[in-house]
Design brief:
alpha+beta; 6-stranded antiparallel beta sheet; 33% helix; globular
Length: 212
Amino acid sequence: MPYSLCTGCDTSPRLFPVYRRSTHPSITLFPAYLNALHILYRDYSLEPLRTYPPASAANLAAAEAALGFALDPALKATWQSANGSDEWQTVFARPGYITGYSFLSLADSLREREYMAHRAPQYDGYEQEQPRDPRICSGWYQAGWLPFAAFSAPDLLLIADHSPTASGQCGQIIAFSHDPDTISYVCTDFATLLEQSLATIREHPEDCLPEE
């Protein structure tokens, strides 16, 4: 049986079965989520939300080969629906916060991951103010951390975590915040993020949506 590599935070990789085609609602939820956002943009008389054509199967396969693990199915399906948004337009919001995040293209996602790897040595000796959630690995870069949304990148990032601890879940959503620099737990999976993100944007449109 084939396997995908989902790297943990210890030195030895953990093997998980390759993601099978799933009927989980998160796989088909993103187009409906985008439709709800389009309606919000219209209702608040904003410039229409613009996303870009889907990532190709070849580009997604190349990304997975470069990463060394299979993408979380819901995140992969999202890039199969649209490959990023304009930098200044809100596609996501983090529950409990009132800042909008743009949607990174697949190429920008890989680039932000590379930047995280390059910045990680600068954190030697640094400890975030609040203790790290036990579901998230220590350190400031893990091979399985893949940013997919940003505000003023790299200041605020939403990250799909393919490198959880034993108490975490592959595909959980975490966040990086700058000043003070912190990595925090957001929610269990991408489907939950979409639900909470839309609720946050609807509750705080004046803060989360772009200005007219």
